[in-house]
Amino acid sequence: MEKAKIRLGIIGLGAMGAEMLDVARRHPEFDVVLAADPGARAVERAAAAHPEVIYTAEPDELVDHDGLDALYVASPPATHAAYAVRAMKAGKAVFAEKPLAVDLAEGEEMVAVAAETGVATGLNFTMADRAAALAVGRALRDGEAGTVLGVEMRFTFPQWPREFQQDAHWVAGRAQGGFLREVGSHFLFLTDRLLGPLTPVHTRAGYGAAGEESAFGLFTAGDVPVTISGQVAAAPETYEWTLYGAERSYRITDFADLWLGDGSGWTRVEPDGPRGGEDTRLSEFAKAVRGEPSRLADFAAGLRVQRAVEHFHRRTP
After folding, report:
1. pLDDT band at 174; cut points 50, 70, 90
2. Which pLDDT band, with edges at 50, 70 and 90, does 208 fall under?
3. Among 88, 205, 240, 246, which is disulfide-ready with 154 (CB 3.0 to 4.6 Å)?
4. Which residues does the UniProt record annotate as the domain GFO/IDH/MocA-like oxidoreductase (predicted)?
């Protein structure tokens, strides 16, 4: 018997919401019923590409709509909790953009309500099903790295926000944006998933007129030291996550490229399986909605990452 499609609503039609709308419309397990954004231009662009979807300027209409099974929330982070909590209490599964929230109390409430209601939840962390990340996970389980000695994350940006985020003004601001929340969280999640929860030792963030400009943090995952650094500077755009092992080391660059280190240099390797993207993470969300095991980060994992990220901001004047 053919499975019924999951009736999906999308809140937020910026860069990520519009992309997910495109992907979900093609996905065999989803039927996009409604989409919302308070910005008229965002709605006009989405409606031009997908005129068959019903649009509204009022996201609350989706939260309360009886004809939806799930919501994808791609609105600014400060709004995530209000939409997600009401949706979960109404019995809807929720798939949200990261970060989970920017207020820790709101993140904690989201996790508590998810546990109380038992609905499926997911955070759209890229590294949840990226082939390179899965390959490192298999290598660790097989003992190929030997003793894990450390993890290092490095990011540089010649401009922030990046070009595709220029319309999302909140991405630059200290209150909701910055590269730690937008980029660093993906790799902090990967570290948490592979090595366990992160404990902060020292964090520092620097700010300029346009918001977050630099950051450095030292954490531990068990006995493993974990460092993360980033800056907006006159340098090429760089995304780099490295796990150092006594026998082998692993590096992921540009979110997808996998490199193997054996003491003599780095060799590019091609991981097995599909690359991983919005389509595969939607498939993982469908599994979660149907009560099957899923690779997605749930809200509890998202809260652990949120705590690590917000530690940079809480004591910085």
Report:
1. confident
2. confident
3. 240
4. 136-250
Q: Which domains does the chain have, with CATH numbers?
A: 6-125+278-296 (3.40.50.720), 127-275+306-314 (3.30.360.10)
Backbone angles phi, psi at 81, to 5 degrees: -60, -45
pLDDT in tens, 48-58: 999 999 999 99
Task: Tell me how far apart the alpha carbons of residues 51 and 175 are, in angstroms, rounded to a whole number.
Answer: 34
* Position 167, amino acid: D
**Residue 162 confidence (pLDDT):** 83
Give backbone dihedrals phi and psi of 279, rounded to 5 degrees, phi first.
-70, -45
CA angle 110, 35, 26 (to 5 degrees): 105
DSSP letter assigned to residue 78: G
Are the C-beta atoms of 151 and 224 separated by less than 8 Å?
yes
Q: How far apart are CA 280 and CA 294, in angstroms?
A: 11
* Strand-by-strand arrangement of the 224-232 sheet: 199-208, 211-221, 224-232, 148-157, 238-245, 249-253, 257-261, 266-269
Q: Which of 128, 126, 130 is nearest to 273 (CA)?
A: 130
Q: What integer is the mean pLDDT of 86-102? A: 97
